[in-house]
Design a protein that fits this description.
- The structure is a single chain.
- By secondary structure, the protein is an all-alpha fold.
- The chain is 65% helix and 0% strand.
- It has seven helices and no strands.
- Helix 1 runs parallel beside helix 4, helix 1 packs parallel to helix 7 and helix 6 crosses helix 7.
- The longest helix has 37 residues.
- The model has no long low-confidence stretch (mean pLDDT 93).
Length: 173
């Protein structure tokens, strides 16, 4: 079987475009879906336990991520968008991976108690933003981008194991 290559390097072929979409769905998109939603769960699980100042960590959160979530939630409440699926019930589902990373960075004391080498996780998320956006915006990632997604996906499982070993129960927001 020949490798699927970026359709934009060839003359128009609807079959080639479909093949690229199938390839990305099978090899990249599902991993990004798992990564981004797992990061949401990690944030919620850790802050739900570690944030003891108030009962609801989200309400006490400050920063641009919270503002982005509120702005995006308002868009989904407009009558013309109510016919579509909502990203979720919790505000974490209304923000992007760079916002998730900002929550971790801004609240690092809570995460450092649970995640060793938190600085590496923050940097790794930062290096995933571009490959994630390439795939999420229906473009074709190069081999380096695809490898970055694969490595992060595999490393995330190790992080999950460490968090679980440290007694944090995973809670879906």
């Amino acid at each position: 079987m020949t490798a699927t290559k970026d359709f934009r390097s060839y003359a128009f072929s609807y079959e080639r475009i479909r093949a690229c979409g199938k390839y990305l769905s099978k090899n990249c998109y599902w991993k990004l879906f798992a990564i981004e939603n797992t990061i949401r769960i990690i944030i919620h699980s850790i802050l739900s336990v570690q944030w003891t100042e108030t009962p609801d960590w989200w309400q006490a959160l400050a920063g641009e991520a919270k503002k982005t979530a509120e702005r995006n939630m308002k868009k989904y409440l407009k009558p013309e968008t109510r016919i579509f699926s909502s990203p979720g019930k919790h505000p974490l589902y209304f923000i992007y991976i760079n916002d998730l990373n900002e929550i971790i960075r801004a609240n690092s004391p809570y995460f450092e108690q649970v995640i060793p080498r938190l600085d590496k996780l923050i940097l790794d998320i930062e290096t995933l933003v571009v490959p994630r956006n390439i795939v999420a915006h229906m473009n074709y990632p190069n081999k380096n981008d695809q490898n970055r997604i694969d490595v992060f996906y595999n490393d995330l499982q190790i992080t999950l194991d460490i968090i679980k070993e440290r007694g944090i129960d995973f809670k879906i927001p």
